[in-house]
User: Which sequence fits this backbone?
């Protein structure tokens, strides 16, 4: 971690630099180069590293990464994920949404699984889409072993997959892998791609799956967790250390309006928590990212589910700055002003592609910028760096394109805006209907509405 | 019967018509094969307008005027080559029965064009719905309630289901105007456009309207002027009318005498316990309507039951098969469908005794005549009912049966004016003059706004206050709700535990809100009372509100038949019946009668002050009208509006219900006790001079703020979600939806 800015005068490749800057300006987490900007939260990172080691050892792990909106949960998850890839783990991540849930009956769970599999990443394929290469690697190593032992490849495959067949859904899983091998053997690309489609949960009906692959089941809403456990074992058979799965935006479960649907989702989380605490999910680490409400709201958060509350409750002694990172919940602390200072330093460094001569701002500007933010939105900007980072990068962008302007002039114009749901914004053509209504009432009133 | 002519025009042959050539060739072929010799005038106009896709459109024509085709020939024409990708045409209709009907009509045509048609309402099975969800395409016919359910239960799928939507059609637009359901529909259509991120042309199909501009304004709030209008000019239908008067008569046997006869083991015929006037009306209906297809409108469900039962008994007595079917909202779907099927069957005579349920355009082909028992609820509704009869070039026939009480020296002045008859005459005169009530679009509909806010939260999981306001109010149909009111409104919901706020400031459903949203009754914007299911021999007959009078052993009339209550299960809410003789209809919870419009009361005054006798009155009706006019003059009501009656004063403003209600509230706020009875305001223990002085004060004083007036009204809960709003917010809603201070003042000034 680059705790000390002076210790990081390395140059950046422009590909990394652009990826970081563009993502952060759009308010999303970059896929690469996390190490260039990460600050603080060292204890939390360390705790998660231990989790990764345990998974790589064939154990299981499960963590709830809890923080406010924009506090860097997603960044944190991606950091852990990229470290996991370095350690030889396979990683998958997905954001929950109204159409992607852990449990459902209308295809939302399968769609979550498909998204996970589409994002499946390995060290050599950090951008995702790694399902074929994982299966390929498994098959290639089986072929090799068959050659060495001079036995039929199918025998080696069967031996290796025997352990899976006993798990729920494992028999058909093994059949699909065998079909992939068959396609590989017979140069039948159609069969191979059907097998991959099946593994990615893209078959919607059993009939289709049966026609294409001769298996009687598909990965459906009811079986996604079983298949995650299967897949975790499978990646180990393929020679990887294990599987890390990140479920982000868990707050979408908290927002589910239907009580029954919400509880069914929490029930599945309880299963995951139990399996992990008992260590029965081999080589599988699961990370959940969510807001404090998602965890602690007594009526609709995870704590509303009695069995989960007793398992996830915070250590009562871990308060007032004391931490206990041995439990399943990691509360992301806000950034200290010092850490924020370092963050700005890192951002300036990345923006200048690692060339100190190209820095657009002097150090004193950081302090002025922080003061400005603090006046505008109070101390929220320590807890939620997302919008602060965006504002800072916008400032840098203007300075870069208008070198004649002094940064002090720009500081007063920086707006820190709240994000809005694009689905509800008025249509453009309608903006001109009600000019009276729009002018007589500013939005400030309701934007800061409190019940 | 009196015959009155109306006007008409000549249509063109399809081959000469340019609109015909704009249609898709498959549709042209279909028209040829169907054997239409011409397109109707509204179709000629609608085809280019709809194919252009530029404007919203209101098509107004009488029932059976070809409105459905006017909308669907061009819509299907534009979908004929490609109807996939998502739902392409959304058709919103107020009634399930209407949906089933339209579905059958469209299915035939669409099959040929290979355009999928789906229907979606509470009675449609899950399998059919799944088809829409997996492969959305073509036309979807739906109720507003089911559309609401789509938003609540499948909020994230709405944009997928509709992203290529080309048209929205609203059928029976006029029934939505100014109602809670109407506000809900406006909100849903607006939210649909927000979800697909563009405007979708709206097409409203409506009965002939008093003020078509208001329908346009409703269809596209705040941009009504830009909505195109198409009016049918072909209304050349002859009208035959009769208004029959009846004097109320007590039953031959009093309840006591009847009971005594029963105890003595003697039989009591239904006629002996039925009021004489009711029996006479039933006999007249039986004699004149037997053997044809007719609709008999009664104003309450209880009346429907009573007449259906009497008419069935008459059929039995004459040893002919029963041909009179009851039809109202409390009857089960099966019973209602039986009645509709009987009406459609041209091979056997069948008539329905019904409430406004059959007022709308369910396609029941040929209806010979329409009967109306009691004064019609409004001119608009009378016109709608009349439109049901005389399709296919026959004259429209209306018989109205009006009952008036016997007078004695103790009858107070306002009860001796024969107001029911005069109101009916007024409605008919206005109808003949081409007028009907314009819809009242002044309401804020905060009750429906509660539903829409909860629904939008359910749709998206959470929403910010300013976003909800921008979406529903600033750019949406609740544009009269400003930020300040919306803030108070949200606080009401918060303090009632309907919504709560998370740390990021987003609103989510709180415990009670979640319960409300998760219950199936949430999807309707209007309230329906908790009712008991009524069952006989395992067959579902319908529902009735709970009442003390439903107990085992009690005789009831339900579905036009006589039963005795076997058991009442309070937990399962089921009333079990078995056939029996005798009984009364259960006390149904009828919806409140619509307010009488100011213009109707003015017309009544005109009728009192003139002397001509309308030709369509029968002898008794003429006598009754003469009595009414005589009493009117006797109390000098042609000279003054305030008269003395004992120690009370009666004030006759001849103003609409809304104005009279406002006067009552206004006077009450001045600490003056006023009661409204029919057309009169009654001032207890006040001399006419004092009343006059009070009214003068009102007419000249600075009028009070309507919201302040509303605050003095005790019970302001009128609509389904009102109980969750605090008094101050309710007062704003009440002032906008019920009161009319300026109108009341003007009404008072007319006379002082």
Assistant:
């Amino acid at each position: 971690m680059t705790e000390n800015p002076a210790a990081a005068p390395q140059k950046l490749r422009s590909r990394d630099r652009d990826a970081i800057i563009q993502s952060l300006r759009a308010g999303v987490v970059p896929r690469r180069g996390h190490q260039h900007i990460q600050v603080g939260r060292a204890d939390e990172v360390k705790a998660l590293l231990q989790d990764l080691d345990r998974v790589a050892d064939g154990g299981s792990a499960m963590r709830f990464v809890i923080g406010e909106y924009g506090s860097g949960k997603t960044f944190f998850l991606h950091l852990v994920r990229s470290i996991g890839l370095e350690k030889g783990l396979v990683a998958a991540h997905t954001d929950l949404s109204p159409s992607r849930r852990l449990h459902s009956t209308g295809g939302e769970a399968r769609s979550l699984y498909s998204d996970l599999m589409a994002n499946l990443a390995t060290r050599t394929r950090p951008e995702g889409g790694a399902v074929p290469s994982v299966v390929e690697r498994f098959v290639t190593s089986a072929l090799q072993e068959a050659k060495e032992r001079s036995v039929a490849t199918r025998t080696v495959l069967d031996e290796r997959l025997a352990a899976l067949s006993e798990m729920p859904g494992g028999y058909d899983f093994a059949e699909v892998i065998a079909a992939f091998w068959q396609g590989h053997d017979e140069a039948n690309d159609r069969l191979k791609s059907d097998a991959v489609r099946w593994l990615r949960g893209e078959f919607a009906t059993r009939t289709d799956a049966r026609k294409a692959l001769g298996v009687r089941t598909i990965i459906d809403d009811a079986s996604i967790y079983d298949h995650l456990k299967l897949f975790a074992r499978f990646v180990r058979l393929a020679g990887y250390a294990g599987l890390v799965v990140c479920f982000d935006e868990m707050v979408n479960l908290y927002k589910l309006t239907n009580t029954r649907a919400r509880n069914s989702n929490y029930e599945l989380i309880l299963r995951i928590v139990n399996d992990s605490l008992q260590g029965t999910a081999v080589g599988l680490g699961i990370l959940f990212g969510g807001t404090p409400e998602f965890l602690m709201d007594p009526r609709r958060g995870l704590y509303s589910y009695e069995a989960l509350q007793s398992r996830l409750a915070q250590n009562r002694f871990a308060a007032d700055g004391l931490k206990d990172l041995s439990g399943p919940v990691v509360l992301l602390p806000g950034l200290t002003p010092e850490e924020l200072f370092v963050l700005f330093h890192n951002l300036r460094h990345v923006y200048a592609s690692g060339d100190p001569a190209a820095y657009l701002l002097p150090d004193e500007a950081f302090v002025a910028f922080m003061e400005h933010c603090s006046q505008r939105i109070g101390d929220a900007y320590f807890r939620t760096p997302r919008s602060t980072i965006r504002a800072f990068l916008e400032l840098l962008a203007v300075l870069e394109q208008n070198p004649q302007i002094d940064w002090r002039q720009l500081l007063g114009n920086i707006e820190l805006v709240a994000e809005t749901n694009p689905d509800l914004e008025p249509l453009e053509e309608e903006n001109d209907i009600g000019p009276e209504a729009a002018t007589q009432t500013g939005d400030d009133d309701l934007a800061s509405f409190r019940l | 019967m009196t015959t009155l002519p109306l006007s008409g025009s000549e249509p063109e042959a399809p081959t000469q018509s340019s609109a015909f050539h704009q249609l898709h060739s498959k549709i042209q072929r279909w028209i040829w094969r169907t054997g239409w010799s011409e397109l109707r005038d509204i179709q000629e106009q609608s085809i280019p307008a709809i194919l252009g896709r530029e404007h919203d459109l209101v098509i107004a024509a009488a029932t059976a005027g070809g409105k459905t085709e006017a909308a669907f020939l061009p819509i299907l024409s534009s979908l004929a080559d490609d109807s996939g990708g998502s739902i392409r045409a959304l058709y919103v209709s107020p009634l399930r029965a209407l949906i089933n009907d339209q579905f059958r009509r469209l299915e035939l045509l669409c099959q040929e064009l290979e355009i999928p048609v789906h229907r979606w309402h509470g009675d449609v099975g899950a399998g059919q719905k799944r088809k829409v969800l997996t492969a959305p395409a073509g036309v979807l016919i739906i109720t507003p309630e089911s559309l609401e359910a789509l938003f609540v239960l499948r909020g994230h799928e709405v944009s997928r289901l509709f992203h290529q939507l080309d048209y929205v059609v609203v059928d029976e637009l006029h029934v939505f105007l100014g109602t809670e359901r109407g506000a809900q529909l406006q909100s849903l259509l607006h939210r649909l456009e927000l979800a697909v991120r563009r405007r979708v042309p709206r097409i409203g199909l409506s009965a002939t309207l008093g003020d078509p501009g208001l329908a346009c304004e409703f269809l596209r709030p705040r941009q009504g002027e830009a909505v195109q209008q198409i009016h049918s000019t072909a209304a050349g239908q002859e009208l035959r009318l009769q208004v029959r008067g009846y004097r109320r008569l007590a039953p031959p046997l009093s309840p006591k005498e009847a009971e005594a006869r029963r105890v003595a083991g003697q039989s009591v015929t239904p006629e002996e316990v039925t009021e004489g006037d009711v029996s006479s009306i039933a006999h007249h209906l039986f004699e004149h309507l037997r053997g044809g297809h007719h609709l008999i409108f009664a104003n309450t469900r209880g009346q429907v039951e009573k007449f259906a039962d009497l008419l069935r008994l008459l059929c039995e007595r004459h040893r002919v098969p029963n041909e009179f079917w009851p039809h109202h909202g409390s009857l089960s779907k099966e019973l209602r469908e039986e009645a509709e099927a009987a009406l459609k069957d041209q091979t056997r005579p069948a008539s329905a005794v019904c409430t406004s349920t059959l007022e709308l355009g369910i396609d029941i082909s040929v209806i010979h005549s329409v009967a109306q028992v009691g004064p019609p609820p409004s001119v608009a509704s009378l016109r709608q009912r009349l439109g049901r009869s005389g399709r296919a070039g026959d004259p429209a026939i209306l018989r109205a049966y009006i009952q008036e009480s016997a007078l004695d020296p103790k009858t107070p002045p306002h009860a001796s004016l024969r107001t029911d008859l005069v109101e009916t005459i007024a409605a008919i005169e206005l109808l003949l003059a081409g007028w009907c009530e314009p819809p009242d679009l002044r309401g804020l509909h905060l009750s429906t706004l509660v539903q829409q806010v909860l629904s939008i939260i359910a749709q998206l999981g959470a929403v910010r206050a300013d976003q909800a306001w921008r979406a529903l109010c600033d750019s949406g149909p609740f544009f009269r709700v400003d930020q300040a009111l919306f803030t108070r409104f949200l606080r009401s919901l918060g303090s009632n535990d309907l919504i709560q706020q998370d740390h990021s400031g987003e609103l989510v459903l709180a415990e009670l809100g979640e319960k409300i949203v998760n219950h199936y009754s949430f999807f309707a914007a209007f309230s329906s009372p908790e009712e008991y299911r009524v069952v006989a021999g395992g067959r579902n007959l319908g529902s009735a509100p709970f009442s003390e009078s439903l107990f085992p052993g009690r005789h009831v009339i339900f579905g036009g038949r006589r039963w005795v209550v076997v058991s009442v299960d309070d937990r399962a809410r089921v009333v079990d019946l078995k056939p029996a003789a005798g009984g009364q209809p259960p006390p149904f919870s009828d919806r409140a009668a619509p307010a009488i419009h100011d213009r109707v009361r003015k017309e009544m005054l005109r009728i009192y002050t003139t002397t001509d006798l309308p030709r369509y009155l029968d002898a008794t009706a003429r006598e009754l009208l003469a009595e009414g006019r005589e009493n009117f003059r006797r109390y000098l009501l042609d000279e003054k509006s305030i008269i003395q009656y004992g120690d009370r004063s009666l004030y006759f403003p001849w103003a609409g219900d809304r104005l009279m209600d406002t006067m009552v509230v206004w006077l009450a706020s001045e600490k003056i006790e006023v009661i409204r009875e029919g057309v009169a305001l009654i001032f207890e223990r006040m001399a006419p001079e004092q009343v006059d002085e009070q009214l003068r004060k009102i007419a000249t004083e600075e009028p009070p703020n309507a919201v302040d007036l509303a605050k003095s009204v005790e019970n302001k809960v009128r609509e389904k979600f009102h109980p969750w709003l605090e008094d101050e917010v309710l007062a704003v809603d009440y002032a906008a939806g019920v009161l009319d201070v300026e109108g009341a003042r003007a009404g008072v000034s007319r006379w002082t």
